[in-house]
Amino acid sequence: MAKNLAGKFITLEGSEGSGKSTQSALLEKYLKDKGYSVLLLREPGGVSISENIRSMLLNVKNTAMSKECETLLYMAARAQLVEEIIRPALEKRTIVICDRFLDSTLVYQGYGHGIDLKLIECVGEFATQGIKPDLTFLFDIDSAQGLSRIQRAKDRIELRSLDYHNRVRQGYLALAKKEPKRIKVINVNESKEKIFEKVKSHVDRVL
Ligand SMILES: Nc1ncnc2c1ncn2[C@@H]1O[C@H](COP(=O)(O)OP(=O)(O)OP(=O)(O)O)[C@@H](O)[C@H]1O
Ligand SMILES: [Mg+2]
C-alpha cells in the first residue's frame, strides 16, 4: 500500500497489446468525471529524465544492452518518476494511475531474463521509496494474440521471441497468485466496455 500517503495508487500491467493504455484512459476519464484529482502516467517515462531513459531502453539499435544495464535503467526511470511526480501527487491526495510499474521489471527482467527476483525487489524498494500500488490490474492475454494487436513498428522489447513473451505472461500470473489481494487478473477476451466494467468495480472498492 502507498503507506502514509493520502492518495490512491493504481497500476495497470500486462503483456504487449493487452489493453493497458486503453483501460488507463477509460479509468482516467471515469475518475475525473467523478470529480477526483487524477494523474495518468506511463512507465518507463512520465517525466523528462525518465522519457530520455525510455528512448534508450526501447531503441532497437541498442542491441548491445546487457540485462543488468536494462534492469537498472528501468529502475532509474522509475526512481525519477516516483520522486518527481508520484510521491508528491499521492501526498496531495491525487489518484495516480500508472501504465506499468515495478511488477513489469519483476516479470520482464526477472521471469523473462532470469535476473534474481529478490535483487529486483531490493533495488525496487530503493527506487520506489517503498511506495506500492493499492490496486494493480493484470490484463492477461495470449502472448501471440497481444503481439499481433500491435500495429506500429515494434520496439526493442516487443521484438523478443515468443518464448520470452510467454515467460513474461507466466511471470505475471505467478505474481498475481502471490498477491491476490492487490493484483486483479482480468481476462481480455471481451469488449473494452465489458472489461472496463470489471476495472470500475474493483476501483470503486478501494476509493
Ligand atoms: N478488449 C479489446 N478487444 C479488442 N481489441 C482491444 C481491446 N482493448 C484494446 N484493444 C486494441 O488492442 C490494441 C492494443 O491496446 P492497448 O494499446 O491499450 O494495449 P497496451 O497494453 O497499452 O499495449 P502496449 O504494450 O503496446 O502499450 C489497440 O489497438 C486497442 O485498440
Ligand atoms: Mg500501452
Produce the secondary structure layout.
Blueprint: E1 9-14, H1 20-33, E2 38-42, H2 48-58, H3 67-91, E3 95-99, H4 102-111, H5 117-128, E4 135-140, H6 143-149, H7 162-178, E5 183-187, H8 192-206
Helix pairs in contact: 1-8, 2-3, 3-5, 4-5, 4-7
Bound molecules: adenosine-5'-triphosphate (ATP) and magnesium ion.
The site of magnesium ion (MG) has 3 residues, from helix 1.
Write structural notes for this entry.
With 207 residues, the protein is an alpha/beta fold. It is 54% helix and 13% strand. The protein has one domain: 3-Layer(aba) Sandwich (Rossmann fold). It contains eight helices and five strands; from the N terminus they run βαβααβααβααβα. α4 (102-111) packs antiparallel against α5 (117-128). The longest helix has 25 residues, at 67-91. The model has no long low-confidence stretch (mean pLDDT 96). Bound molecules: adenosine-5'-triphosphate (ATP) and magnesium ion. Adenosine-5'-triphosphate (ATP) is lined by residues 14, 16-22, 149-150, 188, 191-192, 195.
